[in-house]
Input
Amino acid sequence: MRRPASSTASTFPSAREISSDLSSLLSRDWANIEAGLYVAPEQQWPNPIRILKKARAYFRDLQKVNQRIVTGNSREVAHSLHNTSLPAYYLQNFHFQTDGYLSEASADLYDYQVEVLFSGGAETMRRQALIPLRAAFCDKNIRDVNVLDLACGTGRFMATIKQNYPRLAVSGIDLSAPYLRLAKQNLIHWSRFKLVHGNGESLPFSNESFDAVSCIYLFHELPRPVRRNVTNEIYRVLKPKGRLIFVDSLQPGDHPPFDSLLAHFPHATHEPFYTDFLNDDLEHLFCSADFKIHSLERAFFSRIMTLVKQ
Output
């Protein structure tokens, strides 16, 4: 049974505690690379000029973000778009960021913003999903395997998959057309990939199309009924014994020292469905859809679940 998120913040973990936990994640990441479980990231030594430009753009936009925090304005996107087919819950300035998920400028800043939020640990957390993904097709011919990255965003995880498995066929789907355009740029040097503009509640793929589905940091941004619809769609498109590699925020009790930060997070930034996510029983959700829980582990602020289609 999921322990409800506390409505009152207890003592926050110290900066030293958080830094120590991040250090453990980085050590684990490097050990995985040395063990050959995945290759070192291509951009571990990024262009410093490019990073400085990103930082400048980030701080320029941060002024607008802070203004929205003060005024509580989180619906600019909904007010600026008309006659759109996008779902109403999506038309928000998630994280109070400019344009929500619906502009090229937002897409260009997104990955930098997330790295700032997680003190440089976001991509490292995502990389931990490569290990259960590898196990999902280790006994198959790589050319015969199909993987779907659900809510692929800017394509960073797809690019990481392709770096490790160039011959693997990977499809990505997302609700944001601007983010998909950036994903195409991030994947320009790879082949055997496909990007689709679509909704996870109605995946435009036939039954039993994929050997594995990755779903990374999506569910905490969905209303509870939508989480259930998306779960059922994932089950539908997976082949028998196919695997769902699920990465998202910790929930209360996953790592008690961080519980107070989880409870505080939706108050510090605009995450309209995050508190409900904290209180949602994910194990029950997936088991009700006839998934079997294969593994559950923690990586810094993320929970990583591997689920098998029965």
Q: What stands out?
A: The first strand starts at residue 146 and ends at 150. The domain at 15-309 is CATH 3.40.50.150 (Rossmann fold).
